[in-house]
Design goal:
Elements: H1 2-25, H2 27-71, H3 75-80, H4 88-92, H5 102-117, H6 121-130, H7 136-153, H8 156-166
Helix pairs in contact: 2-5, 5-6, 5-7, 6-7, 7-8
Length: about 170
């Protein structure tokens, strides 16, 4: 019994010694790894609590006047904006300024609808095909509008395909 206990203590001491040796040899790698992980976690927290909400608020503010013009059936003004007011195209194609915002998706959809209303079916198709959302009702409306654009161009197979997707 005493021999077995001594043997277990010996194994435990050897394991501790190996662990200490490993930590000593790899302490810089471990420090940088833990530090990098901490920086990554802080970056994610910052993105979700500060950066993205601020970006979304600005994007929604920029979207407001375009949406107002759209509601008044001023489709060209809604698309292109006027003066300092941004249109759907500026927001939908705004690059990094609107990346990761819901406003960019809304502007893409609305730009497609504006082009459809203006009779510019190729442009309507371009924007409506770029649009995607997890909201089933809105995606269904986009497919229906896409079907309308294809039907106006005379491409009935694509029109029917999009009408089927919308149902």
């Amino acid at each position: 019994m005493a021999k077995q206990q001594n043997n277990e203590e010996q194994i435990l001491l050897e394991t501790i010694g190996k662990a200490e040796s490993f930590l000593e040899k790899n302490k810089n790698v471990l420090i940088y790894g833990v530090g990098g992980l901490a920086v990554l976690i802080l970056a994610i927290v910052y993105m979700n609590t500060t950066f993205l909400p601020e970006r979304e608020a600005k994007a929604q503010k920029d979207l407001f006047m375009a949406q107002f013009a759209f509601d008044k059936d001023s489709f060209d003004l809604a698309l292109n904006g006027a003066g300092k007011e941004k249109g759907f195209l500026k927001i939908a194609d705004g690059g990094m300024d609107y990346m990761f915002t819901n406003a960019k998706g809304i502007a893409t959809y609305q730009a497609g609808i504006c082009y459809l209303q203006l009779g510019k079916f190729d442009k309507a198709i371009e924007y409506l095909e770029r649009f995607s959302t997890s909201e089933d009702m809105v995606q269904s409306q986009a497919y229906c509008a896409l079907g309308d654009a294809y039907a106006e161009k005379g491409d009935m197979s694509k029109a029917c395909s999009n009408y089927k997707k919308s149902s």
